[in-house]
């Protein structure tokens, strides 16, 4: 090799590693270059071919798609949760909490399986929390077991975030889960960037109804009372395929005793309140909306969705969730598709007329059916 100051160094990343070293002066010809072959002593992947690496990557992706289920111990008992995806830099996790009588699959899977939801899934890691004893295959709690209160269920969430090393979340709760997440947000406001609350009853009226049934000696079964909480009277009377499906799930649940314990327990960030137009607790959600800060609260009343809009109208709810996340500064380039193609969409940008001085509603309907991105503090009534 020629002596002197070195110039360009060209090399191959694949074994065998070959370096071509060109000395200065620049007039050097190719004949002056020497080839040096270096034998790799410790291959990075001994015995692995490119096909092996691809198979490993595919297996890892399959594991992420299938979700990873974990359990952590807390002072109030063990809590189980399933994680999908990988954390995104400077973005919160979406953390869901299901309603009573359901688990994360029966409550949220139809929503997260929709085509429109895939854009959100790609942008956020999500954590599906299951109340104690509600996960599939959970053993029945022993006689005398004291089920955690709703406040204690909320106090379990920090242990989940600590386990995952997550700093903030966007909470997405339905019914009892909405109540749990609202309690968590009140006690840990620095960890909650936003809340999506479906069928929230801030006074836990539904659970007081259950207590009234117990005190008056009424003989309604636990499964009947849970169904009355999940669905409107119109839906129950119509006995739709969805109602029949969930009646069968609840009546034949192997952990029905655990569900009853969870049922007994349930008596300042951007918030989106969601309720179906005939939901059992529609008035309670409207009342809750009247008490929240109108500058940070969005209220979505969904037509033709009954008591479980995430099951009956997953596409509409997905679109609303995208707008909500956009209002928080995420997914700015998100493409709104389904609602913008609908023939009829109505948007009421208003504050419901209340004794607290909110202005009376003023409605406007878009002929094209497109719904502009909303900022907190607006009420939407969607029927499409």
From TrEMBL:
Keywords: Cytoplasm, Developmental protein, Differentiation, Neurogenesis, Wnt signaling pathway. It comes from Monodelphis domestica (Gray short-tailed opossum). GO terms for cellular component: cytoplasm. PANTHER family: N-MYC DOWNSTREAM REGULATED. Residues 342-384 are annotated as: Disordered. Residues 342-351 have a biased composition (Low complexity). It is found in: Cytoplasm. Contributes to the regulation of the Wnt signaling pathway. Down-regulates CTNNB1-mediated transcriptional activation of target genes, such as CCND1, and may thereby act as tumor suppressor. May be involved in dendritic cell and neuron differentiation. Belongs to the NDRG family. It comes from the Eukaryota. The gene is NDRG2. This is Protein NDRG2. The keyword Cytoplasm applies. The lineage of its organism: Eukaryota, Metazoa, Chordata, Craniata, Vertebrata. Gene3D superfamilies: alpha/beta hydrolase. It holds the Pfam family Ndr. GO terms for biological process: cell differentiation; nervous system development; Wnt signaling pathway. InterPro entries: AB_hydrolase_fold (IPR029058), NDRG (IPR004142). The keyword Cytoplasm applies.
């Amino acid at each position: 090799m020629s002596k002197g100051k070195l110039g360009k160094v060209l090399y191959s990343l694949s074994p065998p590693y070959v370096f071509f070293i060109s000395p200065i002066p620049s007039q050097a010809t190719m004949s002056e270059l020497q080839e040096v072959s270096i034998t790799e002593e410790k291959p990075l992947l001994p015995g692995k071919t490119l096909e092996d690496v691809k198979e490993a990557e595919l297996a890892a992706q399959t594991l992420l798609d299938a979700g990873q289920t974990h359990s952590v111990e807390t002072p109030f008992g063990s809590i189980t949760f399933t994680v999908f995806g990988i954390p995104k830099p400077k973005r919160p996790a979406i953390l869901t909490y299901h309603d009573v009588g359901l688990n994360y699959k029966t409550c949220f899977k139809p929503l997260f399986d929709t085509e429109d939801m895939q854009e959100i899934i790609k942008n956020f890691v999500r954590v599906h929390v299951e109340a104690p004893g509600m996960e599939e295959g959970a053993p029945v709690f022993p006689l005398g077991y004291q089920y955690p209160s709703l406040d204690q269920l909320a106090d379990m969430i920090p242990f989940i975030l600590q386990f995952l090393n997550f700093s903030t979340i966007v909470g997405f709760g339905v019914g009892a889960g909405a109540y749990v997440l609202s309690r968590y947000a009140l006690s840990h406001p620095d960890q909650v960037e936003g809340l999506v609350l479906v069928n929230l009853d801030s006074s836990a009226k539904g659970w007081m109804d259950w207590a009234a049934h117990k005190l008056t000696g009424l003989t309604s079964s636990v499964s009947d009372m849970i169904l009355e909480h999940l669905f409107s009277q119109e839906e129950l009377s119509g006995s739709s395929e969805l109602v029949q499906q969930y009646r069968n799930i609840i009546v034949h649940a192997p952990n029905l005793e655990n569900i009853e314990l969870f049922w007994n327990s349930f008596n300042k960030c951007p918030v989106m309140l969601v309720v179906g137009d005939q939901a059992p607790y529609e008035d309670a959600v409207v009342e809750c909306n009247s008490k929240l800060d109108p500058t940070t609260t969005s209220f979505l009343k969904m037509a033709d969705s009954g008591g479980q809009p995430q099951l009956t109208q997953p596409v509409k709810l997905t679109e609303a969730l995208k707008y909500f996340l956009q209002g928080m500064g995420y997914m700015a380039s998100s493409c709104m598709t389904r609602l913008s193609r609908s023939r009829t969409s109505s948007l009421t940008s208003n504050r419901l007329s209340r004794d607290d001085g909110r202005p009376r509603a003023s409605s406007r309907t878009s002929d094209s059916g497109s719904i502009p991105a909303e900022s907190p503090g607006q009420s939407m009534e969607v029927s499409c």
